[in-house]
Amino acid sequence: MTKERLYLYDTTLRDGQQTQGVQFSTAEKQQIAEALDLLGVDYIEGGWPGANPTDSAFFEAAPETRARMTAFGMTKRAGRSAENDEVLAAVLNAGTGAVCLVGKSHDYHVTQALGITLEENLENIRASIAHIVGQGREALFDAEHFFDGYADNPDYALACCQAAYEAGARWVVLCDTNGGCQPSRIREVVQAVIASGIPGGHLGIHCHNDTEQAVACSLAAVEVGVRQVQGTLNGLGERCGNANLVTLIPTLMLKAPYVDLVDTGVSQDRLGDLTRISRMLDEILNRVPQKQAPYVGASAFAHKAGLHASAILKDPSTYEHVDPAVVGNGRIIPMSNQAGQSNLRKRLMEAGIEVPKGDAALPRILEVIKEREAQGYSYDTAQASFELLARRELGLCPEFFEVKRYRVSVERRKNKYNQMVSLSEAVVVVVVDGDKRLSVSESMDETGSDRGPVNALSKALQKDLGRYSDQLAGMRLVDFKVRITQGGTEAMTRVIIDSEDASGHRWSTVGVSPNIIDASFEAMLDAVNWRLLHAETMAAE
Amino acid sequence: MTKERLYLYDTTLRDGQQTQGVQFSTAEKQQIAEALDLLGVDYIEGGWPGANPTDSAFFEAAPETRARMTAFGMTKRAGRSAENDEVLAAVLNAGTGAVCLVGKSHDYHVTQALGITLEENLENIRASIAHIVGQGREALFDAEHFFDGYADNPDYALACCQAAYEAGARWVVLCDTNGGCQPSRIREVVQAVIASGIPGGHLGIHCHNDTEQAVACSLAAVEVGVRQVQGTLNGLGERCGNANLVTLIPTLMLKAPYVDLVDTGVSQDRLGDLTRISRMLDEILNRVPQKQAPYVGASAFAHKAGLHASAILKDPSTYEHVDPAVVGNGRIIPMSNQAGQSNLRKRLMEAGIEVPKGDAALPRILEVIKEREAQGYSYDTAQASFELLARRELGLCPEFFEVKRYRVSVERRKNKYNQMVSLSEAVVVVVVDGDKRLSVSESMDETGSDRGPVNALSKALQKDLGRYSDQLAGMRLVDFKVRITQGGTEAMTRVIIDSEDASGHRWSTVGVSPNIIDASFEAMLDAVNWRLLHAETMAAE
Hints:
2 copies of one chain form a homodimer. Chain A is α/β, with parallel strands linked by helices. Chain A is built from 20 helices and 16 strands. In chain A, the strands form 4 sheets. In chain A, strands 2-3-4-5-6-7-8-9 form an 8-stranded parallel beta barrel, surrounded by 8 helices. In chain A, strands 11-12-13 form a 3-stranded antiparallel β-sheet. In chain A, strands 14-15-16 form a 3-stranded antiparallel β-sheet. In chain A, a hairpin with a 5-residue loop joins β15 and β16. In chain A, α1 (about 25-40) runs antiparallel to α13 (about 275-285). β11 of chain A pairs antiparallel with β11 (about 400-415) of chain B. Chains A, B: GO terms for molecular function: (R)-citramalate synthase activity; 2-isopropylmalate synthase activity.
């Protein structure tokens, strides 16, 4: 049986941005778009050009992607032509290959929210879609509130979809905007839409998680023929979120009946990056990854029950629905580091360190990691700190310099113009090649404003490291994330620093302490040491 | 049409305890049992008596509940009688009205994990269930790995269920132990079980969330006739968790087809306690409640998209699948840069501030919010800072005290034992009622370790605020979140602080600055001012 192609449409950058507390910067949008493209989705909805400065800036410098970049907007307003609607024009001006327009399909919303006639709305849909197609773009129509609309007035809801389809929409996307529809109802209504004449190969599904069934509803639609699924990474989105692509993708690729029915564009190799990509998004958002997330959560393959853990050691399939390695995740079995050692060797290899199987350093390194993770450290993303830790245990990490002490102060008071101003000052004392060096810096930038204590410490630390100073030229802190974690019974502060050198190399380090300044300094020290360790290799590149 | 009764079986205290990182104390188990009873579930599975000291202690002093208290255990082992199995005896000795025994129903597990014959396993099921019934207890049989077992050997899986049913089990519970089964498969297999002779009124369903479909799978089983649903509060449980009763209960009570099909024992009144009960569990576990949780999450009825927010004001049903009040939750319309004046008035009303339509302060407040959001502030969650900002614009915010200046220092050096130690010290100068007061604090805690500069500043600020000091007694910082945002061209630090007072009230404030200490201090000042502003109202509650 030949499988039909199922298209994945990601809306993390648009509907995902409606998550309470989420506000992407343009740079973050670019990073996420690149990760989505790596994963292998078919469409990336980048935002609504013209609706806000971030979205507009993103489209001006959108990354080159294999996935089809899509601009989102709404159908033209009544009383003007599609050509003369400046909101629609802004969407088209983004110059994307595909354009997705949301429009009403629930009669109540047409007359109440828009305050226009049902026929005017149909005409808005027709004219807008035809205009996009006329510009040589791929058109998509998001039928807002479709399932609620179908319940109240099935003929009109279908007519909206027909209008878009007949005007040339490549996809008509059935949206359960309010998220209250149940899977059996989705199945039934989708079958009615297909019976009305729009083939499943032209239908998409867009579900929300308000009853915890966005995944189930999406899959129900796929079972009856829909061939485009919309969702977001980690289920971000308005209210309770959108359908979670991080769950949908492996289910579609690994589980019956989907695996026998459809093919996504995601390769088995990329499926192995799923856990990493999911956690990267949380990293960008400075969220704690959900431990219980299906497939990718840290607990997804953790076997705590005693009966389960012992059976798992005999045969993992006894208590696992899929092999965790397939999605890039790992098994956690309390009291067993069997799996740990081979993972560790793999990760060391990635850092360019070969350690033979059975080396006595392996359990020692695992032990140190375990202890430090109990204190609040996290080495999932802080690969540079992980590498330094392992090298120290292996005796492969030279001590370039020693920090004897530091002091940092922040003072806030009125200046002579009676304005409140801050001044941060740091003193760092290091020993390099046997020489003691005292450096002091303040954190004032070229505009005369204070950049804070971490900046002052960073400047003082790098100010005079003797023969190493040159190798640190151009290095800068590009991101700084702070999180409160539980280390034993005490609240601990975890700082993750992303650094970059002049040639654009980036690396991440971690520090943990109840004191935010100590934690920052520790991460900063790791960043400097890692740079010095790799100075020669990098210079040669 | 008369509805059939659907029984809710809660296993928070047993399977929920398998969550990684969760370890209930006996007292916590009692608290949770009382909350479950208040909610109105039919069965409370309290744990496995004899398996660990906490569970044993819980049953020794189990609270009196309307719900049927249930002890969990496993079928007797081969080679001894049910009467002589001391593991089973410990379970019966708990003296509960109902006993649930897990047993194998997958042939592979019988021969591989237990290492006994298929017939021996059937005999263990029969004898164990008969023994429980013989003691006058209600017997339940958890058919472990039932769906996987049915796939490999349907006759044997059914034979296990039949053995339990014929031996007198009130309920045969079909378990998708590994959580990989899809809803359409659940539906099909349950229909086969009913066709084999066990009525739906004697069947239960126990699902796990490994593909994010524990709720969907449970509901699929209910649709085809199963009349007991097992789950946990907030979806706690092994790996990705169990079916979430907090989602299932309102869906069963509010949504078609379930609402027309079955009746749970939960009253409409108790449904209104759902949000409170869900958050109480998180409180007991010291977890941050999931904002996006269906029905009960803080974001579940938050309308961020501009188009949605304005329609909601006309008619909430336009973007809400149920009325949030029905589940004890509330609507949130966050301030975002598109938010209009009517949103603003509504949000002010929630803070107890009435501003007439068309008041000139409204556009002024919106302008200030816009400017501050461009600098990096975020008022989505920091409701207390939003309120202070608005009150200041409206002239409704007294100045309790003035901060003249502060200074904080962190020093890290070796102590006399040659260990690196830190010391944070803060000086804050305030004017209260015309009096200048200088306070100095260090951040050492009772164990002698340093808690950092923010802690030192907080102590110094609250140390001497004259007549206001009493009103701040017991106030503490419960969460602290830091992010780097882009404010114009400069990297800015945004700090969000969650504070709590002695009576458990919580509020969030925000501060922004390139200097992390300044940003923290600003958020801290807002927290203190908000507390002082509400001191009288709160004391009166």
